[in-house]
Specification:
Strand order of the largest sheet: 2-3-4-1-5
Number of helices: 41
Amino acid sequence: MLERLNNQTKRYVVIYFIAIAIFLMLKPSIEIFLAKIIDLSGLDQLYFEIGYYILCSVVLILYILAFTRKYIFSPNHTFLLILSTSLYVLSRFTNDNIVFLPIENSIKYLDLLFFIFLLHCIVLFVQYLNNTSKKPDNKKINPVHFIEDLPFKGEIIENEDIVENLITTLTDFRPSESFSIGINAVWGYGKTTFLERFNQRIKEENPKAVVFWYKLWRNDGDTAIIENFFNELKKQLNPHSGEFSNTISKYVDTIVAYTPDMIQKIASTGKSILNEDETLEEYHNNINAGIKKIDKQIIVLLDDLDRLDENEILQSFKLIRTLADFNNVIFIAGYHRKYVTDSIEKENYIDKIFNVEINLLPFNEKRIKEELLVQIRKVFTNEKNAEDVIGYGASFEVLFSQENKELQDQDINLPNLLSIRKYLTPTIDLNYQLFLKTFRDVKRFVNEFKFNETFLKDKNNVVIKEYILLKLCVYKYRELQNLVFSELDSILSKGAINVLDQNKEFSADILGLYGPHDIYVYDQNAREKIFKKIKDNTSYSEEDIEIIDAVLIQLFGEKSKSYYETNQNCIAKISYTNIYVRNNLAGALFKITDFINAFKANNLHKILTKYSGLTLQSLYNAYNELKLFIFRREITDKDQFIDILKTIDGMNIITQSEDRQQIIDLSGNVLKNVYKDDQTDFLKDFKEVVLFSNSIGAIDNLLSDININEKRLEREELYTSSGIIKYDNEIFKDEFLKEILINKLQKIVENNTSIDIRLSGYHMYTEKIAVDHKIIRSKDANELIKNDIKKEDNFSKYLADGFFDFTTPSDGEPPKQHKHQPRPFLDQIFSSPETLDLLIKDPLNKELYTQFSNEGWDNYYKYLKGIKNPIKNDGDYTNERLERILRLLQKFTVNEYKPLTQQEYEKVINSKLTNSRSRIKKRSENGKY
């Protein structure tokens, strides 16, 4: 049993029994001595008891605090308590020389020691239960926690063959002078793991050998490396011989007494210096003789030479080659040769120190990938069923696969793009080993990756493979974060892509010539800028630049329309770039998860309020991404559909026919799958959405566009095929369109919205297209606006808004050629309802249309002339403005309702109103206003 106890426990056991033995041998004398020096017979009983109970209370409180705070007692504390309690038991129950004062007959005051001992045992037992209940080996790695860089866990390692060969070579090898072996590998290639595995295997194969670690980098001071080494050597040899302790101590004291210059001389001259100092040589020889006597291999494992500075490295070399040059001693040291050589600035000096140098083999790409996948799955795997719930495992696995490369080639193989600009191709095939050279790299990268990933909140905010590739790139090339990725806006080209254009693979807007930009593009111009920045500011090799170039091509290179549509949140989308490069911190205007959460809560339409303060460019991007999100959703209930309609209605960028057709298709699917073809219920909900807002939204414009194109189809002879949009529409019939759009106009008018909104509502529905492209509005719309104008106080609002002012249509001609006329719809608003009905029945009748228009102008003019002192405002919005409009209308009427020339217009403006109406023609009673 004792063999299984550690050295410290063995020491406590030995001291315990020695103390018990001495106490038993001298028990009477000790008890009499204690009785004399602790005589309590003259103490005041009351005060003694008060102090005693206070002491008991304090002890109890201290142990309660220790229990609640999980305080760990010092082993010395526990040992002294056990020893004291044992001695008290021996004295209390086998006592002839001392009397213990009782509290009661059977309880003594000093029995407090039992109480303390009991409390101590309880605390220790609870701590034991807590420790044994923990199972760190089986504990699931918390994704929030970092992965420890533990070098060795007992498994077979990459360089296992080298370990086994080295053990075979060293078996029974007892050099007459110390023998040193160097293990050379770059940082992270597994030097420590190699030494750990060697340590485990050599103890299994040669248990009699003395094998110990000496951590060089844990020393501080000129002689600390030497002093601490010999202290450790003494500790390891003492169990085998009593000769070493005193001799090694004197040897170290003699060495330390030398000045640093003399120690340097020892290192440079070797053993010859020992011969000059008989005392030093004597101690050295004595140690050597002792090592020969025990006849054991002494293997010293030295790690992390490449963590030391120049002076510490030289001190270590002195130790290996001179001061510890004993029989049977073998040094095995791990280091990175280039680092050591550069630090001491002595080429090949290391060859003078080590008899043999072993180079560890580098990791291959397959093993790097395997280790990476192991670590990723530990972090991002469901604990219950080992499911890759996040999707990172699958993405890491296929990132550089041939299948993924072929998919990328499909995304960028665009013939029309090749004709627009030169397509960039990478000069190197990417793989994990280009970014991660060692297992340590893998662990460091995974730690950084999962820490950064926590800021994403949800993987739906990014295209996972793109996010991984970006993080691999900035892991290896740290400078790129500030040098390139923080300045993408000024480095990369920009373009705008219409991802819903069904007729063209890639919109002309890709060049950024039309409309707002929504994507970054890595093209030849961007490549030249980045190459220059890298070469001017870093020391990256040509291979490094090729790797960076390949990454940027994969992330920002031109891709097909389908790629941007499928990967809505890709890094090249300007709206999402900051989520990648800034880890979703202070820069992302919106995220896919925002859309998803709002969609699930049927509050997607409320998300539009977040974008009210954005710039036009940002607003365009936000609406475009939200539009793409909507068109990719599967709608499963009516509330979702209503929320979607409200959202669409609030986005004024939906103006393209392709967008509108998708809304029609979406509505058709909902009618079939959600409303089960109940068109009455469907149209009722649809109408409620349209009437929900007091402004003209995208749904209103959709219905209006369906309406006008159906009217164009009725006059197909007037339009070319490109002049008519033929929607695939089986839902929204003309009767419904008229009802809903007139109802919308009515709501707008009743809610006293702005004049512009009222006019927009007025123009939403087209009743007919008459004669040659003349748009005829409905009689209901005319009556709503005309009656609204006639309301008390409304006329002044319309007048102040410029509603009645003459307009100046212009195609860019000089001012002298300008034409002036009233707004072209005013004749319809004031037209005869009866004549309108006739025109609707006979829209091709030009004479009827002329009558309809002239009656409207006459009625409009008569109405304005009948206004008496309508304006109370100051400035231009006074009766003078109305009089000016009337003078222009008089001339317009006299001019047979033809636009006024610039000269006529200026002349009327400068003249006074006359009462001449000689040119006004009499109209039939049907046309009377």
